Description:
Helix content: under 10%
Largest sheet: 6 strands, antiparallel
Number of domains: 2
Order of helices and strands: EEEEEEEEEEHEEEEHEEEEEEE
Shape: elongated
Distance between the termini: 38 Å
Structural class: mainly beta
Strand order of the largest sheet: 10-11-12-21-15-18
Radius of gyration: 30 Å
Strand content: 35-45%
Amino acid sequence: MAYIGSQPTVGNFQACDAISVSATATFNLAVGSVAISPQSAQHCLVSLNGVLQAPISSYTISGSTIIFAAALTTADVIDFITVMGDTLDLGQPSDGTVVPASMGTTAVTALTAGTGITNGTNTIYRSDVQKLGNILHTRILIDLTGLASSGNGDIIGKAGTANSHIGQITAAVNGTVLGGKITCFEAPAGGDPDINLWYADEATGAEDAAITSLTNQVQMCNSGDLAIGTVVGIPTPPAANKYLYMVTGAATNADYSAGKILIEFFGYV
């Protein structure tokens, strides 16, 4: 939209640099030594000698200068001048002021894996959960390097380490999950390439332990050997409050030297 005169400054309130008072009525305004031009006198908060000043009657604004109604003296003190954005428009929010709760039906959060995953040497684990309207999209990105596999049906994680889950599914964060998929970006090497997904009640499952040693464990998919470009559907979605595990489909007792996968779930509220 085009404007006649100066375009509105919106959203980001700014404190002007300190002003050394001299025997004059006109002073330059700057933020970080850069001149600033307030939209109007009403867009400024001005304190002089500890008293807030009334726009227009006590001061006016012309470009990047403030003009007081009467000349000041060296005994006067301009306590502060704050330039406000256009209060009728949101504009660009100030840095650090937007949090997920502020975004209404759109939010971003994440899952947290156990230390049996995150403590792997050169292992990469990242996740997010995006909410758009009433649809939730959960993503878990893993570089398997540094994790280990062992016997058929055993949990994958850092060798001999407990808490080798890759996150917990909850209704509050992930919604009601309908299904998902695994996408392989780099074929697993070293460890077992047949990586299946399971869920269980406990977070304590350890690498080299059978997934069936956990409570209420359920297999979500049977992947077969993953190769670059492989996409595997997850026909059995995880139930609420369950912990997710990667589990071997065959016996390969070794550490992973490669393997990058993306695990996705789709839910609703």
